[in-house]
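Box 3.1 A note on notation
Throughout this textbook, protein chains are presented in two layers. The first layer is the amino acid sequence; the second is a token string describing backbone geometry. Keep the layers aligned when reading.
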Amino acid sequence: MSLLGDHKTVRILLIVLSQFAYVAALIINALAGPGKGPFERSTGNISDRYQTEITPAGWTFSIWGVIYSWLFLMNAYILTWLCRGLYSSPAILPSGFFLSWIINMILNSTWLVLWDRELMIPALIVLALIAFTNYLMIFFSCLGLRAHGSWLKQQHPKDLFCIIVLVQNGIATYATWTTIATLLNFTIVLDLASVSPTHAATASLCILLLEVIIWFTVENFLIEKHVRYILTVYPVIIYALIGSLSKHYIAAGPGRNAIFSMVLLVLGCILLVVRVGLVVWRHRTRPLFREVSPEVLMSPNSGTDK
């Protein structure tokens, strides 16, 4: 078999394995929710046992349904590549994307087991790794669009749209929520280490504030051309903060962390408006994917403006 044939076989194998990993994770999540099968308690019951001053209201966690539905659409779209020959020539999403996805799904299932056994420190480590592998997938998707964005725009514009909406923004939603979940898990670990619940929650909110400021700076001024159309980060943060405030904010006498959360909520709304405004302005004045000549267009390796 030729090297090209070997490469295509590996790509197909990775895509298929990533689908199996997703289905397996869905099954395990379905069992973990109500506490069936190997799970001793429902995930909700354990969450109730480890409440913090910033834990969102129960309804907030329904976002998992949105996330998994979004990821289902992403995976269904990727499966269509096998029928249309887009899985290898070109490799729109690098192999690293699918490897990261498989690892992510394994970590996802592992976290559920650790959470069920109330092993909070190992659960924190695994949850942080879940968020990290999500960041890796965003990175690999950006690499793919940098290499093939212009080709997709001129030859497969619908696929370019699907990659931006289903892949990049779907993973960004998942990444943002798991980042917030990591901070909640971190707060629990601090509580168990006899740190004041108020101080523990404040520490996590400080980390969230730092992450938001760093991300806003990086996405708008350092790597803007790579992440221009990723827009779901701030809505997820806003949603999580609203969920937290709906549970912990007392108008007659709001606590320190409730006030901090309110400030973060206002900041998140402002940054979302600024971010959308910058994206619209840059989309009109600085098109992301450059026009290429017919000769260059024959090759799928044409990317963004340098």
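The chain has one domain: 55-297. The chain has eleven helices and no strands.
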